[in-house]
Amino acid sequence: QARAAEALAVVGRHDEAVALFEPALRVLDACWDEDEWKPVIAQAARAYGNSLMAVDDPRRAAEVLLNTAERVKDWPNQVPHAMMAGDAATALERAGRYLDAAAAFQRAADLWHVVGEPLVRIKCLRSASWMLAGEDLDSALTLMDRAGGELVDALATEDQDTEIRKLVRQELAETHVQRARIVLNLADEVFDDLRNRAALQAR
To 5 degrees, how large is the angle CA 86–CA 59–CA 94? Predict the structure, then answer.
C-alpha cells in the first residue's frame, strides 16, 4: 500500500495517496524496531506529509513530518533528518504558524550545516528570517545578516571550485535582495498605517 500511495503521489493524485498512506503507515509502524524498515517508513511518512500539504492540510502535514523528524534525529546519516525538518518548516509556514516555522527552518539550517550543504543552509536561514519578520524585525535581519556573512566567508576561501564560487555569489546577491525586501515591506506597512491614521483623523 505504501508503494502504491507513493506512486499516486508522484503523478499528483494526492487525495488517493493520502487515503492509502494512512492505513499503510499504521501497518508499517509496527515494524519500526526493525532497522531495515526504518528508511522505508521514514520515506513513506515524508511522502505522506507532502501529499497532505498538496491537499491543503498543512497542520496535519506538520504533525506527521515533525514526528518523523524526531524519530530519525539520532540516525548516523543526518540527511533524512534535515530533509524532514525542512519539510516540516514549510508545512508550519503554510499552516500560519510562523514562529514555529522559523524555529523549524533554523533547525533545518543547523542540520544542513552538519551534513555539509552550506547553500541549502543559507536558504533555510533566509526562510527563517522571513518567518520572523512580522514579529521581530531585529531577529529577522540578524538571521539574514548571518546568511550573508557566511557567504562572504565562503567567498574568501581560495581553493573553491569556479562553479561553486558562482553559486555562492548568486546566493549572496539573493540574500541582499531579500534583506532589502524585508525592510521595504516593513516600510510599506508603516506608511500604510500612518496613511490610515491620517485618514481617520481627517474625518
Answer: 60
SS3 28: helix
CA angle 55, 59, 61 (to 5 degrees): 60
CA distance 70 to 38: 13
DSSP-derived secondary structure letter, 88: H
Do residues 32 and 23 touch, judged by C-beta distance below 8 A? no
Q: How many residues belong to the chain?
A: 203
Q: What is the pTM of this model?
A: 0.86
Cα 57 to Cα 15, 21, 39, 49, 67, distances in angstroms? 11, 14, 24, 9, 16
Residues 122, 179: Cα–Cα separation, whole Å: 13
Please state the rounded mean pLDDT for residues 171-175.
97
Give the pLDDT confidence of 188-202 residue by residue, as tens digits.
664 455 344 433 444
Alpha-helix residue ranges (DSSP H) falling in the chain: 2-10, 14-29, 38-54, 58-72, 79-94, 98-115, 118-133, 137-155, 162-202
Question: What separation in angstroms does the CA of 128 have from each of 33, 131, 155?
Answer: 34, 5, 23
C-alpha cell at 188: 510599506
Q: Give first-to-last CA distance, the chain, whole Å.
A: 65
